[in-house]
Design brief:
mainly alpha, about 55% helix, coiled coil
Amino acid sequence: MSKKWYNYFVSVDSVTGEPASGGESGESASGPGAPAPMSAADEIAGLAHSIQPTPAPKFANPVADPASFAQIYEAAEVRVPAHGFTIFKIAEMLKSEHIRSLPVEIKRSSVLLALDAAGVKLQEVIEDAVHRDRALDTFEAVQQRSLDQLEARKADENKQLQAEADRVLNELRAKIQANNDEVTKERERLQGWRFQKQQEERRIFDAVAPFVPENPITTGPAVTPKAESGKVPGN
C-alpha cells in the first residue's frame, strides 16, 4: 500500500471545480480557450507523483537495536541533508505553536515559504520521506524473514525433540512392562512352589501325626503373600 507523504501539502481547493484565480468562469486571463494555470496544489501533487519508485535500500550495517529508528535509517544510509530539512523537520514545523492551529492551507503555504527561503526544493523533502519509509518497510521485511526462518528452525528442532521424547518414552514404557512381567513371572513361580510345599508338608504332617498328641508340623504358608506388592507402577 503506497503512502501519500505529500497529502499534507496538497490543498482540496482544486477539487471543488473553482478556478485557481479570480477570473471569469470558463476563461483565463490569457483569453478564451487557453488552459487554466495550474494551482499550487496541482503542482505539488504532480511533483509528488513524479518521484520515481526507489529500489529497496541495502542495509550496510546490522541494526543493534531494532527499536531505534535512527539506527535503521543510518544502516539504510538515509542521511540528513546538509540543509537539515528532513521530513521530520517539516513535522516539527507543522506542530509549531505559531501555525499548528491554523488551516491546512496556511500551514502548507508557511512551510513552502520556509523551504523557498532556505533554497530547499520540496521534492528533496518528499524524497527524504520516501527513503525513510522504504527503509522502514524493508527492515520490516527483513525482520519478518528472520522470524520466518527462526520459526522454521525451531519447528524442525521441536519435531526432532518430540521424536526423541517419543523414543525415550517408548523405551521407558518397555522397561516398565519388562519389570512388571518379571515380577508377575516370579509371583506365579512362587505360588506354584507354595502349592508343592504344602503337599510336602502334608506328607510330613501325616507321618508325624500318629506319634505326637500335638503335631508340630505346619502346613500353611510361612509368610502371607502381599497381593500385587511387587508390581511396578506405570502399567
